[in-house]
Amino acid sequence: MRNFTTTLHKKKPWAKALLSIGGGASNSSAFAAIAANPSLRATFIASTINVARNYGFDGLDLDWEFPATQQDMSNLATLFAEWRTAVNKESVTSSRPRRPRLLLSAAVYFASNFFLSSTPRAFPAESINKNLDFVNVMCYDYHGSWDTSATGAHALLYDRTSNISTSYGVGSWISAGVGPRKVVMGLPLYGRTWQLKDPAVHGIGAPAVGVGPGAGGVLTFREIVDFNGRNKATTVYDADTISTYSFAGNAWIGYDGVWSVRGKVQYAKARGLASIAWNS
């Protein structure tokens, strides 16, 4: 990790490195236990700061997927507040000359609230806006292998038929009180695939009978480019949803291509967002 941060710090202009803790395969219950207990919160906070400084990181990111109850969300708000107090104090008292404060961020659900869940809950937007430098909003995985009945644009910007879209999700964060300049819009560097029921019917929402190529119906962007080239796939940019898909035979892939990325970047600029982030 020290080699990683040192390499980034040699870049001109200076590039910053954040250590992300958690992820999709991490133990959500462990995070819940930490956030609920004052002693465990203090231990976690001190440990993360120590690791960040030892390896030269410029900040810390929490990727808790996901708080399961509103009480978890309340505890998360407390964790963020105590974390911010601790990094503020550490930057002032740890050494001379004063070191820049460690940045704090979090990876979060595409919307500020889990409106699709049987357990409705909302992220602590006030605490996030006050204590974090930014949030990485997961604007992808709207559709996938859990629904093989129809193709889906898994990271579409607009959806006229539902609120499952990036525009709705980003808007919900801003409406909840998180400033646009603290919102980073996540984009996927991978696609999700389906097997078409009828190769002649191949639009978004076309009938499907299962996942297509790739492990679990997922292809990296490089694999998509290779697949499209090998199979002479037809590539379609859908201007209504701001998404891209390709098809060849009965294989269908939904992903972000050049034009859909451009559309999303334009949207991010128009909304005054902090940035975009790639997720692989």
Chain oligomer state: single chain
What is the CATH topology classification name of the largest domain?
A: TIM Barrel
Give the CA-based shape.
globular
Spans with pLDDT under 50 lasting ≥5 residues? Answer: none
DSSP strand tally: 12
Q: How many structurally independent domains?
A: 2
Domain GH18: 1-280
GO biological process, one term: chitin catabolic process
Protein name: GH18 domain-containing protein
GO cellular component, one term: extracellular region
Structural features:
single chain; 280 residues; alpha/beta; TIM Barrel; Chitinase A, domain 3; 2 domains; six-stranded parallel beta sheet; 8 helices; 12 strands; Glyco_hydro18_cat; chitin binding; glycosidase; chitinase activity
How would you sum up this structure in a few lines?
This is GH18 domain-containing protein. The chain has 280 residues and is of the alpha/beta class.
Task: Give a structural overview.
- The chain is an alpha/beta fold.
- The protein has two domains: 2-188 and 257-279, TIM Barrel (Alpha-Beta Barrel); 192-255, Roll (Chitinase A, domain 3).
- 36% of the residues lie in helices and 21% in strands.
- The protein is built from eight helices and twelve strands.
- The strands form two sheets. The chain has a six-stranded parallel sheet with strand order 1-2-3-4-5-12. Strands 6, 7, 8, 9, 10 and 11 form a six-stranded antiparallel sheet that branches.
- A hairpin with a 2-residue loop joins strand 10 and strand 11 (251-255).
